[in-house]
């Protein structure tokens, strides 16, 4: 099962034999394959990678890899990943989420993970819908999208995750499309290599509740510009593009989160501070 | 002479900036220097900073973290809003009120206790010394009334003051001279010298966590747990660990789960509102079998409640707050010093059983500072059972003990996914009834097989079946109960004390033995609805007649209340 330590690994070595629960045609299959390709391209070993997620169709990804997985509670993947990476800086930590998990219930953690700039790669499979709970509006759903829970549309304007990530301090911002697994794999590999908090929004259609998203194939196109290190510039571009610009859009150079430093004392010594002297 | 029961209790009050806490801490230190045990609790008004406050100091010849029934002396730098503290600083006709006549008369709320009033021009006296302050004069007066040796007071002042040391010492001396000329509340002789610590409950809990092996903390500030975190932040840095200030408690608990999944013993500290936010993720810790420790420094609830004051009302949420059947550990320290031992133990239990453990401390312990005997600790780190190698690894293997070896990320060949979804032995999500039952049994078995030894409770009295009364309590009620029992025993009514430290898993067999021969049980707790009583009735068979003594926070129980209740029971 486990390949010998010396052998170079292929993408398939990162794929577990556990069959995904996803609907046929779901964009997340391709994201899974991009993740495994990227890990192979990075020359990593599965035991040194952890994939952390919350709850949702997209959040099922960890167990479909041969890496260490953490399938936590809804919306808290970034928090769990932050704890893991700070405690275990030796690991490569990927975080997988959906637009509901990551932007709605987990929205606050998104802001603060960007700010904190821990060396994580955050992959949000955005399908503009809650897939797992069968078709409700998410923070990226169009205001006029009709659903049982919001008949005639929610009437609420959508959220702009890439701009929010920039404003909050993410160190790497990219948009990918699941319909291009090799391109997505390349972006993911670059995101992992980039220090600090890397955010990759992957447009990943939900064929079941958003069959209209099959048309994304036609709409996605490579970003006509090179990544910038100027967040204001990147934000302006993203605010004004058509939402289907694919590629690395921003690469910053903020210092990643400062973790533990080597010990300088012992517990016994700390205890002595409380011992009464004199008397 | 004031009936101080081997101790003298004094309070020093004043409005913001009067320096009552500084002087209170020096009095505590002076008592320590003179060889006494002592305890300082504090109370303050609603202002964030400044505002009225009182330092309450009990100097004793024996270790205790209970406040006494009455205060011998209440000294005030000024009286502005000090009447608010009347219920917290009970006086009687043998008490003395000291105040500066220039600040007006003491509030009627205090005078009606019958306490005598001794006007002392604290401000004018302080002015006699260049750079002198009224709080230092008041410190001297209080120390002088207790007949604390001048040398101990001077040393305490010198140790805590970097600037103005000389003036501080002179002002305290002047205060002592004033006292000597007037009244007398002498202390009993000090106990034989032993090694002691001066520590707060929050510091003790933090140190206990570090001793237990905790090297990762994530937390969100909340009164009265913040000082625990503020103690741990620099201490962790010195030990090569980290504290992350999280964006909220949802993040804190999930961060520590992530860190612990990675192998780092991890902890968070909070109070009721924060614990409420952590509940969902605690269930993840139970199901995914990830050890974590949550210290809940309880404050008055529900909702924001009284943020700065104590109550034992989070027992229900700690025991029963999780959805689903979610076996986990709940431990309660039963003395200020035990905040160390209980938290260290909680880390051991969490790590060895791979479960979340909740430590129920409270504001009373957390923010009180005391001279204590060297806290008891285990001085060992319990290593988690980890998996190193092997084929066809089963993270959730159905072992006899229920504990299965945990593979840490980085270990080749053993990768698995920790999951809050019900799963089979391999950790693969499963909706099969048989997997659910088997894993529920496994998780329950871990706790059922726990042998806590003597740690489950503090048992006192009841040797050779002495007395047929038992008092059952937990946490910060234990101190006053212990003292109430001692006074009742001196009056011929014997009762045993059983203070539970391990609240979950319950230990019915042990309690049964502890209560052998008991005909009357008194349950003491600080909450409104009798949460502890209901818990005891649910988990244990209580013998004979059961009486409940309870009230909500923030007023602590005083030994006399316990004593009187025991005499009543003894007469029955
Ligand atoms: C606390 C909590 N609330 C609600 C749910 C129900 N729930 C599960 S997944 C989900 C939404 C998932 O949507 P998204 O993150 O977009 O993922 P997708 O399924 O579309 O991949 C919700 C609301 C839950 N599991 N936990
Ligand atoms: S419901 Fe949508 S998101 Fe979920 S598996 Fe099916 S296609 Fe994918």
In short:
The complex is a heterodimer of chains A (279) and B (572). With 279 residues, chain A is an alpha/beta fold.
Explain how this protein is built:
The complex is a heterodimer of chains A (279) and B (572). With 279 residues, chain A is an alpha/beta fold. Chain A has one domain: 3-Layer(aba) Sandwich (Rossmann fold), CATH 3.40.50. Helix content of chain A is 30%, strand content 15%. An eight-stranded mixed beta sheet of chain A has the order 2-1-3-4-6-5-8-7, sandwiched between helices. In chain A, helix 1 crosses helix 6 and helix 5 packs antiparallel against helix 8. The longest helix of chain A has 14 residues. Chain B has four domains: 172 residues, Pyruvate-ferredoxin oxidoreductase, PFOR, domain III (Pyruvate-ferredoxin Oxidoreductase, domain 3, 3-Layer(aba) Sandwich), CATH 3.40.920; 176 residues, Rossmann fold (3-Layer(aba) Sandwich), CATH 3.40.50; 66 residues, no CATH class; 116 residues, Rossmann fold, CATH 3.40.50. Chain B is 35% helix and 20% strand. In chain B, strands 6-5-4-1-3-2-14-7 form an eight-stranded mixed beta sheet. A seven-stranded mixed beta sheet of chain B has the order 9-8-10-11-13-12-21, with helices on both faces. Chain B has a five-stranded mixed beta sheet with strand order 18-20-19-22-23, with helices on both faces. In chain B, helix 1 runs parallel beside helix 4, helix 9 runs parallel beside helix 10 and helix 15 crosses helix 18. The longest helix of chain B is centred in the middle third of the chain and has 17 residues. The radius of gyration of chain B is 25 Å and the shape is globular. The model of chain B has no long low-confidence stretch (mean pLDDT 96). Chains A and B meet through strand 2, helix 2, helix 4 and helix 9 of A and strand 7, helix 7, helix 8, helix 9 and helix 10 of B.
